[in-house]
Amino acid sequence: MNHLASLLADLDLSSRIALEDIPEIDLYMDQVIQLFEKKYGSSTRNKEDKVLTKTMINNYAKGKLFFPVKNKKYSREQLILISLIYQLKGGLSIQDIKQTLEGINQRTESGQFELNKFYQSYLKLHEKNIEIFNEDVLKTEQDVKHEVKMLEADEPEELETILLIVSLINISNFYRKTAEKLVDQLAAKKVKKD
Predict the structure, then answer these.
(1) What are the Cα distances from residue 86, in Å, to 7, 12, 89, 91, 185?
(2) pLDDT tens-place string over residues 134-167
(3) DSSP alpha helices (H): ranges in 64-114?
(4) Phi, psi torsion values for 66, nearest 5 degrees
(5) What's the predicted TM-score (pTM) here?
């Protein structure tokens, strides 16, 4: 576990698609996949894992997670939405993602919403979240070391690793459950409006 700081660095958490990475011209599906592979490829768990596939994009389109494509080309706004979907799919169901992005999709498609500004705000928060995450993981590691010392056990390194894994998953579940409750609140507000 003494390698946790280097492990955090290896996660490549700063991988993201910045606004300047998105061309002003519309892209074909293969170009979209190339962009995502270029930006997120180093952050996959295994080298053979694909960041984004044609099937994924088609499923997102069929599921109406972003507004319809015109002439088989994806606009800047659709690329932003696909980037948000990519981030959300690690913790939310496809239905929850659809619910979360539905209002943004509608307002963006009708021209009532400046998606670029929203996405820029998201990217700023992304940077802050990396700092908070790194500090929190290292603090959790210290808490775990303290608990394992109290156990006076053989194989303390293995126990530290297992306890850290369980603690991190526990924290992850807290965040996911909170996000799901927020999705439910968003859905309830929409029902009241309709």
Answers:
(1) 22, 15, 6, 10, 22
(2) 999 999 999 999 999 988 878 889 999 999 999 9
(3) 76-88, 94-109
(4) -145, 160
(5) 0.90
